[in-house]
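User: Can you write out an input/output pair for a complex, sequences first and structure second?

Assistant: Here is one pair. Inputs:
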Amino acid sequence: MKSSLRGALATLAATFSPLVFAHASLVDSFPAKDQVMTGSPAEIHLTFNEHVEARYCRVKLVSDAGKNFDTDRPAADKANPNAIVAAVPVLKPGIYRAHWTAVGSDGHKTHGDFSFTVAK
Amino acid sequence: MDDATLAALSTAASAAFDVGFAAMVGALATRALLNDAASDWALRCRRRCRRLLLRACVLALAASLAWMAVQAVSLTELPWGEALLAVGGIVRDTPFGRAWAVVVLALALAIALVVAHQRRATPLASLAVLAAIVAAAHASAGHAGANGLGALTLVMAVHVLATASWAGPVFAAALCMPRGDVPTVDGPDHARRLSMLATASLAAVALTGGASAWHESGGTLAPMLTSTRTDWGVALDVKLALVAVAIALGGFNRFVVMPSLPSGWRRFERVLRIEAVVLLAALVAAAVLANGEPPVV
């Protein structure tokens, strides 16, 4: 009963707020979230649920020690308009967190982060 | 300037644009609805609508310019001065930049038309075409236009226009109807036409909004079902409540107050003014939602 009421309200809300779904969100990445890699990745590849403006996207890497690593400005993946690629420097073994900022086709920014490990 | 401040400024600019555009459409619609009325009340109402039209266009244009300035700083991460120089690149390189340029040009043209016709009849048809262009460009700047100008962009353009023609005439009525007067000749007729326009607009908002939300969400309402404990979810609930109150107020005026016109005119006006404030708050809540991030499901 409670869930059907919530469903009805959600339907009504969607009817009057159709644009609220419209934001770029991460659907796939390389390295994947929590992936343990045997060596440093050469690049970070992010795939979103919609077209993103690669020129205005950002990817930043931070080690578990708090050190920032510069990545190159992301470029559009020529094979997939929903994806961007950022080259990264050679990473020593450790845990890294990738912070991404994506800009959707409507100019809205979205943010997110995920961790991966470079094993010894 | 940090991301949170820029996001707040962007939301404020979006809300100001939505209010300005709604008031523009409302002033145009009210002016058209009163076109044949000849009473002193109607003439004063039309004069006020003309002033509202100009102010609304200026507000929408100023809000659009402010929005792009904030976008430029946010996207380039440069100081204001340098970021503003990047606006040309944003317009050239992005679909939302090109759509923004069309909105700005159409609004500037609308202002020029209104100013040029200060002492002549307002060119309602030309201004209505410009309002439709603004709505279409605004819709194409969103996700509906990401894959070109297809059916979804058209649906969203109708949604933008219908939202404005629901809220706008209420704003125009609250701001332009001379207070204290009881318009026995034209008032009840105008109230009936206003109510019909609001009902038709509301139906269009619901139809286009429902169709577009279903398409955008891929047939799932999961973000809305799981969002009650986030700030975004609270904003959604607040907006939904405001929309429900506005519909209830409109229904009260239509079915309870209107049958008693013209004697119930003051009550009709009071309810309209409350409805205008509620719709204003709903537009602000809509801007907060559109600029916020829905919860990841």
